[in-house]
Amino acid sequence: MRLLKFLALIVLFLLGAYTASMYFFVDEDKDFTIERQIDYPLEKVYSQFENFQSFTRWNNYFSSSKTIKIDYYSPYEGEGSSISYKDPVKENDGEMFIRFASKDKGLRYQLFEDDNENPTVIEVKFKKVSENKTQIKWVVHTPKLPVWTRVQNFWTEDRFTENINKSMVNLKNVLGNKVEKDNQLAAIKYDSIMVEKEDSQMLLGINVSASNKKDALYRNLLMNYNKVYNFVTIDLGKKDDEFGYPMMIADPDNFKDKEISYYIGIPLSKKEGVSDNNFSFRTVNAAEKYIIYYRGSFEGSVKAVQQLMQKAKKDEFRYGDVSHTFIEPPIENQNINVKISLTVFK
Q1: Domains identified in the chain and CATH numbers
Q2: Per its UniProt record, what InterPro entries does this chain match (predicted)?
Q3: pTM
Q4: Phi-psi bin for 103: left (phi > 0), alpha (psi -120 to 50), beta?
């Protein structure tokens, strides 16, 4: 009996000490600021923050879960827009609102998590550093916590910082694909051979052999492009702004054969686990290439490939694979819009 009383006193003492320490030494709420810089124009960065449908794709708080369900409410961007979410696996839910928006300057969010009636208030401020650099500042104010749960404030800032770091990586990947696509479309000059140093890419796709008679190759390409696109968007859950232009890679000398082998793939930012053995990753190394932009029938693109080969031979270069990068997705019974690249080397 004495032992039980002694243990009870110890427990009460520890609880009292914990309560006192939380009350006197730990703030009931927390304020902190985090700053980051990203190498993309202000207007493109801001648009990713003001539209919740874009925001939830790259913000790690939402994008890290494959089981989270999000409902979007009108208006879908700017002041007054909102979402609700629920994750049955992590057993959390909440709501998020944009309470204030100033175009290209700042936003104020309110985040209500689970049953907490007091929101986390997040102000995000944007500053143009240069034409292609933007500074982002997060000013965070967490809700007041009761004494018993106030210990959470010890790791709130670290957890928020970790989320921002992961989110920034995702945002760079999204903006990288968007800016690359915009720049390519703006720089197109058709039917002229140019020299270009292309960066390396990681593709996910399918190796295929197909008949090269009449339109059989293009029909086969369409079928396999759709397979790859559906796998990337449905099975991997990627959005259109999270990957690059589809690419067909082949041996240029094989276009005169009755049967041709090719690889059709879509560029991703990194390798991911793929359970379907029909799909494989392929690295396209950075290299100097002869390129030509072509718009017309798929069969007619063979002449553009031959132009690149003739140019390489004339300049006494050897050549490797040729790639068709589809600036517009290939569609049945429609002309193609492609960038054709031939790898060249001494």
Answers
A1: 26-184 (3.30.530.20), 194-345 (3.20.80.10)
A2: START-like_dom_sf
A3: 0.55
A4: beta
